[in-house]
Amino acid sequence: MDTGPNGEEPTSWDELYSLNLIPSELFLKFRKEVEGLRVGVNLEFYNAPVNDYQAKIVLKPLAPDRRWKFIYEPVHQDVRILSKKIPVTKFLNLQVGIGHNFQLHATGWKWKITTCLGGDGISRIQNKTSLGLCPGVDLRFGWKADYVLPEITGQVP
Asked: Per its UniProt entry, which superkingdom is the organism in (predicted)?
């Protein structure tokens, strides 16, 4: 690489980009099938953005076209019924739900659009991987890769 017009050394390629791989979640899921429903107990541990723990009881129909799931969080005393994630485009999913919080005496509905390509105003790739440890027990771990690409500028003479 040549010296720039101001006599500065050019930046190396390694200094032009940044990639930060973060383990973000670890779920231990215990599942049992009972009369057309899958009953699950999820122990969820989060690493990013803050360390957190949640326990959930989840009920889902076993039908291949299942369209809902019921979630109860005993620590937060929160009950929700959520729709299946509905594909909007190849990279976007929509999920809607209604819930009630017994501590706050509040009922409401919410929706969220999710994607694997980013979030929180950060250039990010997110992914989750599941491993079946034995029948009825799954381990799922998630990771995030935050990236910053180089700023490329130039001009036409």
From this structure: Eukaryota
Tens digits of per-residue pLDDT, 116-135? 665 555 567 777 889 999 99
Q: Answer whether residue 9 is part of any domain.
A: no
3 belongs to a structural domain = no
Q: Which residue has the higher pLDDT, 145 or 9?
A: 145
Which residue range is the domain that position 29 belongs to? 24-148
User: What gap in Å lies between CA 99 and CA 123, rounded to an integer?
Assistant: 31
User: Considering the domain boundaries, does residue 13 fall inside one?
Assistant: no
pLDDT in tens, 1-43: 444 455 555 566 666 667 777 788 899 999 999 999 999 999 9
- Residue 125 belongs to a domain: yes
